[in-house]
Amino acid sequence: MHAALQFAAIWAVAFLSLAMAVVLLNIYFGFIGNDLELRSAGKEAAIAGVASFVEAGSLWLILSFAPGALRAMILPVIVAALIYRFAHVEDWSGYDAFMLLAFQVVLVFVGISLMYGHFQAAIVLWVGFILFLAVVAAIARSM
Question: What is the DSSP letter of 73?
Answer without folding.
Answer: G
